[in-house]
UniProtKB/TrEMBL annotation:
Record domain Negative modulator of initiation of replication SeqA N-terminal: where: 1-36
Primary role: Negative regulator of replication initiation, which contributes to regulation of DNA replication and ensures that replication initiation occurs exactly once per chromosome per cell cycle. Binds to pairs of hemimethylated GATC sequences in the oriC region, thus preventing assembly of replication proteins and re-initiation at newly replicated origins. Repression is relieved when the region becomes fully methylated.
Name this polypeptide is given: Negative modulator of initiation of replication
Keywords: Cytoplasm, DNA replication inhibitor, DNA-binding
Superkingdom of origin: Bacteria
GO MF term list: DNA binding
Main location: cytoplasm
């Protein structure tokens, strides 16, 4: 029985080809190389000499090298072929593509665009003058705005101060935010507004509501000045 040194990778390869318990490395190699498999009584020596190449003459070294080369080449030939897949053949999972807005203008375009309203319809000086005080004019203009824009009036819920709530869908919601809010219902819109602000603040709230609903700033300020 002859003994040779093999590296770790080759050892694992041979061990991985074991088909039955107790099968020796010699039997595995014979089977892989299509040589007749014989039951060999292995006699392990007490010590294995490990001569280096330098201890062999040139002919012996060349013969040993060629033999080892042939064994390795035959083992490699009998290894299972691996499937080679190019990048173009890899099927990537199909993921639903969601368009992500890249700018403020794109964000605006996602929402349904507001229709163009004729805000000049709110400038009825005669009716405005008939209202009682700044609160009356404030409520009259807000009610006219709600009638003008319809369902889009819900945009006013976005108008909030620092720790303050100006618009809500119920009286109680405004009272919960501030007991002194003095909330009033805006016509028949179903929305409520706080009225305990001074006239200048009421103008700013109305201006912001008008601009939010599509009115240009200059016109919005001129309408708010009717308060």
């Amino acid at each position: 029985m002859k003994y040779i040194e093999i590296d770790e990778e080759l050892y694992r390869f041979i061990a991985g080809k074991t088909e039955r318990i107790g099968e020796s490395a010699s039997e595995i190699l014979r089977r892989l190389l299509n040589l007749p498999v014989e039951q060999v009584d292995e006699q392990r020596p007490e010590a294995i000499s490990q001569p280096g190449f330098d201890a062999l003459d040139a002919n012996a070294r060349e013969a040993l090298f060629n033999k080892a080369k042939n064994i390795v080449e035959q083992l490699v030939t009998h290894r299972p072929k691996t499937l080679s897949v190019t990048n173009s053949e890899v099927l990537e999972p199909q993921v639903a593509q969601t368009s992500v807005p890249q700018s403020v203008s794109e964000l605006k375009s996602i929402d349904s665009p507001l229709p163009e309203f004729n805000f000049d319809d709110l400038k009825d000086k005669k009716l405005i003058s008939e209202q009682k005080g700044a609160v009356g004019r404030f409520m009259f203009l807000l009610s006219g705005l709600a009638n003008l824009v319809g369902n889009d009036f819900n945009q006013v819920l976005k108008i909030q101060g620092k720790g303050r709530l100006y618009f809500a869908c119920s009286k109680q919601e405004l009272l919960d935010a501030s007991q002194s809010a003095n909330p009033k219902q805006i016509g028949s819109s179903g929305y409520w507004v706080t009225t305990n602000n001074n006239t200048a603040k009421k103008k700013r709230i109305l201006t912001e509501a008008l601009v939010l609903l599509g009115c240009d700033t200059e016109k919005a300020q001129s309408i708010a000045n009717f308060i």
